Amino acid sequence: MWIEPNELPVNRVQYLDENGKLTIGAPEVSDDELIAMYKWMVQARVFDQRALKFQRQGRIGTYAPLSGQEAAQVGSAFALEKQDWIYPSYREGAALFVHGFPMKNFFLYTMGHLKGTDAEGANVFPVQIIIGAQCLHAVGGAWAGKYQGENSVSVTYIGDGGTSEGDFHEALNFAGVYKLPMVFFVQNNQWAISVPRSKQTASGTIAQKAVAYGITGIQVDGNDVLAVYTTMKQALERARSGQPVLIEAVTYRQGPHTTADDPTKYRDKCDVDEWLAKDPLKRIKAFLLEKGIWNEELEQREFALAEQKVTEAFELAANTPKSKVEDIFEIVYEKKTSQLTEQQQSVSSEGVLK
Hints:
The protein is 40% helix and 10% strand. By secondary structure, the chain is α/β, with parallel strands linked by helices. It is globular.
């Protein structure tokens, strides 16, 4: 019997429409949780805008903006337990902050500082630049956690473009075969740099790719923080019981792929404007205002506080002494080998071989 693509329907989970109105019954989320998630989204938006300016001023290196993806990142990370792990790519600043990664260290990372990989106690793996490789690291972490009897879930974040990489599919296969405590969180922001989603996969959805690997797949409105949070909570519960999950969060990258990119060369302005109307911050803010648990005074205060936190984090990073070449040898292994010690001694204080 032939299986046609349209025979694998995937429903999209959504609670809030573009205007912040409930489309179905409200999920079990407290007012305090709603406000906390919105505050994290505000913090992420302010951080992103400031980081973009810092890069244009030459104060940090190449940066991958996240504006437009705040609901996907905050909603998913907010659902995590402290013992859970994040294996990120390079656009997950918001998720990392929610899970305890210091903002100062993210700035250090963008400055090329070795301390930029220091999670300071948060269960966050170093940012992965190689597209899709973080999925394999997450599988290894999940496998180790299962072997050691931990009650942790490994969550890896990847973009829609990354799902075309072999590493992604290898990771799904291992997770499915060995029933690993894993969640693959795909942020489908419509563009893999300049390649639209329609030109990189013929699948009706990315979520349905899970079926071939024997794991659960689900699609969620990635601009609806309520839908993301509740879906992630359910996914984590499944994953802890040995049922890996693939979540496709449908969202949009409002800015460039990185600060080395010009999206006006390949994106139509009408398409951008259509997605800007679906802005995740506007949506949840409208919902909070309607519930009477938010107002413009709180809004102004929160944005001002977010600006202050970014300023303080950046100043801490900017005033941190620069990394030295010889410091690299200290972070390769827990205990240095004789070869590393010899190599370290062969480097001068100027960072060149003696």
